[in-house]
Design goal:
This protein is mainly β. 0% of the residues lie in helices and 49% in strands. The strands form ten sheets. Strands 1, 2, 5, 8, 11 and 12 form a six-stranded mixed β-sheet that branches. Strands 4-3-6-7 form a four-stranded antiparallel β-sheet, with no helix packed on it. A four-stranded antiparallel β-sheet has the order 13-40-39-38, with no helix packed on it. Strand 38 and strand 39 form a beta hairpin. The chain is globular, with a radius of gyration of 24 Å.
């Protein structure tokens, strides 16, 4: 996990009322793809409220470990105003790149935004029109469109705010501190802005971090891939004729994979998508799942007819799965511990010795398994049609789940595991459920639409997608 730097910001804003700690917080994260510290070694943050004085603070970035830089802004008095938050990347005393977002405070709530200082915006005048700012890719957009405030997701182990603003006191303004959203009951909220098309079916989601999330799926008559970044949906153009996509996985912003119908296996290198070479006959069947090690050194793709492919972005080769069932999901904790599941109750495990796959007997051979997730060799979950199974290293247990059909499963810990899918029609139960370490319980969502996938990068950063272009985030 990257070490986060949090800076407390203090500024003066003229208010009629006396200062109060009103529980309103705006957390600002600043990240960059410029090389640190040779191309950028300092970040300057400037806050310009709608009413009141401007305040500036800056801090040194010694390495990539200091990113994303994070600061908390809390207004005293009435929070019903907008602020311009400007992030400048500097090399020494010279400004390299700038981005500005105009955002509101949300009374009584903790929200966060991310400003990304992109090398594609590091030009002398990237946006000649007033009121616009440059985002990744060199596109100029209105400052109000740069960053959509989202519920603040505090990360475990983050340093607390440190004092350091250059503003004064007065009748109102900002003080340090933040509200840890993890103190509140977890709930799913609809991501704003909504996905661009309610006609889309989203089958896969992968959050690289809390500000960079990929989704894939289908929008007639083609497959689609979108990235949610800086509060905006940006379509990532696929090769012409790409069909429906079912799975997505990423090691980084320049190492993203997507799989789907007709043997589709694509790789995104940060610039564009291209088919991945596969030794032997090219598969024509559906590829349903993809997973790889965090460094991208090993990637597995699974699909119909027991297909398993293994390799890197430079090429994949078939591996003998020793099953003929359609495989629908794959997950692992390293190249020595990888699992896949599928039809006819199939669950297979890759043995580190020789890399061979062996069938796992749980006794429910008539069930369809759709998803698998594991935190280690003694904590494996497999979910599917009327079945939720857990393997503890010595044997399998079947647990009751409010969902009739669970399509996908993911967890941040052995007592924080989520499943999505659809309930029995007669029960009206929600479309998500959570295992709390003892039992599975129903969870509320703001939608009554079937969900197809759930994934996260850490506690507090879980995402779910489904039919109707639904995108949810766990708050």
């Amino acid at each position: 996990m990257r070490q986060l730097v949090r800076v407390a910001f203090v500024s003066a804003v003229a208010m009629a009322c006396s200062p109060t700690n009103n529980g309103t917080t705006l957390v600002v994260r600043v990240d960059t793809d410029l090389t640190v510290p040779s191309a950028l070694n300092r970040i300057e943050i400037q806050v310009t409220p709608e009413r009141g004085g401007q305040t500036t603070d800056s801090f040194t970035i010694g390495s990539r470990a200091d990113l994303p830089a994070t600061m908390a802004i809390r207004p005293s008095g009435s929070p019903s105003f907008n602020v311009d938050v400007t992030a400048r990347g500097l090399l020494g005393g010279n400004s390299v790149v700038t981005q500005t977002a105009t955002v509101p405070f949300f009374p009584g709530e903790a929200r966060e935004i991310t400003l990304f200082l992109s090398q594609t915006c590091a030009t002398s005048m990237p946006c000649p029109m007033a009121g616009q700012t440059c985002i990744t890719g060199g596109t100029c957009v209105a400052k109000t469109q740069v960053a959509q405030p989202m519920p603040y997701m505090a990360d475990a182990g983050r340093d607390g705010p440190r004092d350091g603003g250059s503003g004064g006191g007065g009748g109102g303004g900002f003080d340090a501190g933040g509200r840890d959203a993890r103190d509140n009951p977890a709930q799913w909220i609809a991501v704003s802005p909504a996905f661009p098309s309610p006609a889309a079916t989203l089958n896969g989601v992968w959050p690289i971090d809390n500000a960079n999330v990929w989704v894939v799926g289908y929008l007639q008559p083609r497959g689609i891939a979108y990235r949610f970044t800086q509060g905006l949906w940006i379509e990532s153009l696929l090769p012409p004729g790409t069909p429906t996509l079912y799975g997505v996985w990423a090691a980084s912003a320049s190492d993203v994979w997507a799989v789907g119908v007709a043997g589709t296996v694509l790789h995104f290198d940060g610039t564009g998508w291209a088919p991945v070479s596969i030794s032997g006959p090219s598969p024509t069947q559906v590829m349903s799942g993809v997973w790889g090690t965090p460094d991208g050194g090993d990637v597995w793709v699974v699909g119909a007819g027991g297909t398993v492919l293994h390799g890197t972005k430079n090429g994949l080769a078939p591996e003998a799965s020793n099953v003929t069932a359609d495989l629908t999901g794959v997950w692992g904790v390293g190249n020595n511990e990888v699992w896949a599941v599928g039809s006819r109750g199939t669950a297979i495990r890759r043995n580190a010795t020789g890399g061979t796959w062996t069938a796992q007997n749980h006794g429910l051979t008539q069930s369809i398994l759709y998803g698998v997730w594991l935190s280690g060799r003694t904590d494996v979950w497999a979910v599917g049609d009327r079945v939720t199974l857990h393997y503890d290293g010595s044997g399998w247990a079947s647990l009751a789940n409010p969902l009739e059909i669970s399509i996908s499963v993911w967890g941040s810990a052995d007592d924080d595991v989520w499943a999505v899918g659809r309930p029995a029609a007669a029960t009206g139960t929600p479309f998500t459920s959570r295992f709390n370490g003892v039992r599975w319980l129903p969870a509320t969502t703001p939608t009554m639409t079937p969900l197809q996938a759930v994934r996260g990068s850490s506690f507090g950063n879980a995402w779910a997608v489904g039919n109707g272009g639904v995108v949810l985030r766990l708050q």
